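User: My collaborator and I are trying to settle a disagreement about how two of our proteins should look. Neither of us wants to argue from intuition anymore, so we agreed to look at predicted structures for both before our next call. Could you fold the first one, then the second, and keep them clearly separated?

Assistant: That sounds like a sensible way to settle it. I'll keep them separate. The first protein:
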Amino acid sequence: MIIHPMSHPLNGVSPLQHLGVIAVQGDDAASFLQGQLTQDFALLGPAQGRLAAYCTAKGRMLASFVGFQRADNEFLLVTSRDILASTHKRLSMFVLRSKAKLRDASADFDLYGVAGSAAESLAPDLREPWSRAQVGSATVIALYPADGQRRLLWAAQVGQAAPRGPSLRDELWSWSEVRSGIATITAPVVEAFVPQMLNYESVGGVNFKKGCYPGQEVVARSQFRGTLKRRAFLAHSSGQLQAGDEIFHESDASQPCGMVAQAAAAPAGGWDAIVSMQIALAQNGALSVGQPQGPGLSIEAPPYPLLADV
């Protein structure tokens, strides 16, 4: 078990400049999203947000979102800015005759991450991950915690007062994202994973009872036929880590056994990451990053239970 001394308490408010917003509007907005993403948007209630993935026909993740309904026939999808344009373009190709319009609404909204006692003060009753509340004119969504510290996503139209709390450095928020165990898809890992390789089915990112969407057959087959051989774990290394880095096991230097999905500098030193790798090798033998002789990597279990039966 990796111990992270909280010498820099995870408490405060951080602007999320690395995230952007795709707005989906129109009479068919809900049904359009229902047919494209891994989560159920047709039954999305006012007290709920959604974690969702957008996949290729082969089930590989092109993007991930935190989504919610902002108004009648309007949904907002929060995603990584570095893939927003390509994701917006691809999704728009499939609107066809649907009464739905997509636009990059990043300039219209401010996004903040709120952690620790600042999160307690802002929304004391909002605790279940992906639950949603309206706080003044802002939408607030509960995220998975990081090492026991509460975390929230705050979204409001530009010009609204920012959430109250001490300033939280960007790198600490990035580290909290890693420690939550919920990876966000960014450019280096587009099409690298099916949702279960990042444990999305265990953290509310996949609904197996909804209708068709791109990659559904592959995602369902991975779940029900026991073919999944890779999972997401937390990891730590003394060397620098970044998304897309390959992971090697001592038993086979010829090919990687996993990949770094997301990484951040750890306040106590070194780097922490979410890695997706072969389950059989995760806790058995020495691991290295980047190359077989690269920096060592230690692994720990994800900070939430995995869904064994759906």
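The second protein, kept apart from the first:
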Amino acid sequence: MNYTDSSLISEWNSFVKNDSYNLIQKCLKLAQILEYPELDISKEVEKIKEMGVKFRNRLSESKNPTYTISLLNEFLFDTEGFQGDLDDYYNPKNNFLNYVLDKKSGIPITLCILYTEIAKYVKLNLRIVGFPSHVIVKYEEEMILDPFNRGRLLELEDLQEILYQNYGDSVEFEAEYLNQITNEKIIVRMLRNLKNSYTDSFAYEMAILCNKMILSITPNSSDEIRDMGLLEEKLGNYEDAEKILNRYLEMEPNADDVDFVLEMIKEIRNKINQ
């Protein structure tokens, strides 16, 4: 497969912008394009539906949300056996819903998607929160839950601890970190996870495909444009890299990494002129 094939991007673009597809279907499409070309999306959707119906049948009557959430935790983490993947957390496949359904373990973002989807079957409106470094779920404004840790109820000090573990003292808790995240941003976040994983394992063509998939959703994202330039340089496409990095500097003349990017452009020009 040619990972920069424009037909793949075109296919992704029309699917992800089609409002008749929901978040689950779009996440599965992402998996199909990147790693599982034979994936039957409707079959995977059916697996989730069967789980949702099974959970609904266990709930004999509509109780209060706290009780329903405790039953949801019991169902997903005890009965169905889902868990956070601590052993292989950075495996890129943890971003693919079909893989998580199969293996019954995943990372915060995929477990939150599954958790909120199953909750819909009992009319429990849980929302996904794009907390920095660790996606979580909330009910109304009163309950913050962590599906990666068996649906544990989080207090403010728990949230501060997550920030401390990932950023040290450099990031302070802010109320806006608990805002609901849109479906579009959830998908972009998954693609960024994947792009980073592929880059770390030197799979630069796959990383570029992820980058292009992000840019089809947010075409004016300067960070993605910069990363595209850096990835093209890794693949030895120096003229493309120089052009893209110059575009980034035009967009962000006062960015923190201007010196780094200018130095990179200088190195690229030296390589072109060799």
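Some points you might bring to the call about the second protein. The mean pLDDT is 93. The radius of gyration is 21 Å.
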